[in-house]
Amino acid sequence: MTPPGYLNTYRPRLPRSPSPSYTIQPPVILPPQQPPIVVVPQPSPPLPSSWYKQPVDILTFHYNKNMAYAPAAKTYDEAIDNVVELWPELREVERDRIHLLVTGSDHLVRVPRMTWTAVLCDLPRYEVVHVQVEELLPPPQYQGKGKGKWGDNDGKGRRSSGLFSSIRRIFFG
User: Which CATH number fits domain 53-133: 1.10.10.60, 3.10.20.90, 3.30.70.260, 3.40.50.720?
Assistant: First the structure.
């Protein structure tokens, strides 16, 4: 019988075999292994505000000796919408005739539709954007009746204005 608290386990006895002939070597001691280096990316510290530009949020539009503030539009079409809203007299003007210009080093520079977002990123707050309306050219003017006909006999006759004609007139009258 087993004492209380002990488990009764059966352990079979293995037959004894003759001991093999080998020599016991001392254990090989390996140097301690370094844990693998794990690089955890850290978020970069925020840059000082002087290192990057904040996107512009408000612009000053100038048209016909008047100025007005407006929110900076993300697209060229939104900017034209702001201009038309600020100056209602431009509602009747075709949108393709309205141009936006910014101040360059010594003169105004037109900002085309394709570069609006790139230029907007480089503008300072409250930058003046000039609005220019392209004037329509008047239709060609025709001469009145009876003027400019080739058959007129007004004493001058028909003269060519080429170089050879001028030389001929000098030598041959």
Answer: 3.10.20.90
**How many whole angstroms separate alpha carbon 166 and alpha carbon 153?**
21
**What's the pTM?**
0.52
For 71-120, what is each residue's pLDDT tens digit?
A: 999 999 999 999 999 999 999 999 999 999 999 888 999 999 999 988 98
Query: What is the residue-wise DSSP string for 10-72?
Result: --PPPPP-PPP--PPPPPP-PPPPPPPP-PPPPPPPPPPGGGSPPPP-EEEEEETTEEEEEEP
